[in-house]
């Protein structure tokens, strides 16, 4: 089991400030899940929620985890998250249809 966990961790990729986890097979993803995490754990959702996200990926979902810094300026935080996602979205759409 440890070898499988290490290999799933190695599958994470960085794309324009997002962390991407593709389904393990060559099949088209069932859907894309954009994950932000929680307020205190938002800086590294790909690590803090790794177990959940890797299980979803194993079931055929394409995971996009976008880290963010918690701030009282919620509008700026949202703009930064959307900006990171939108910079990576064209590449993901081209690769996955």
Fold and architecture overview:
It is globular, with a radius of gyration of 14 Å. By secondary structure, the protein is α+β, with helices and mostly antiparallel strands. The protein contains four helices and four strands. It has helices at residues 2-10, 45-48, 50-58, 74-96, and strands at residues 13-15, 18-21, 32-35, 62-65. Strands 1-2-4-3 form a four-stranded mixed sheet, sandwiched between helices.
Strand order of the largest sheet: 1-2-4-3
Let me know the number of strands.
4
Quote the beta fraction.
Answer: 15-25%
Bulk shape: globular
Q: On the 0-100 scale, what is the average pLDDT?
A: 86
Order of helices and strands: HEEEHHEH
The computed structural class is alpha+beta
SS summary, helix count: 4
Q: Which percent range fits the helix content?
A: 40-55%
Instruction: State the end-to-end distance.
Output: 33 Å
Uncertain segments: 1-6
Q: Any idea what the radius of gyration is?
A: 14 Å
> Quick one: biggest sheet?
4 strands, mixed
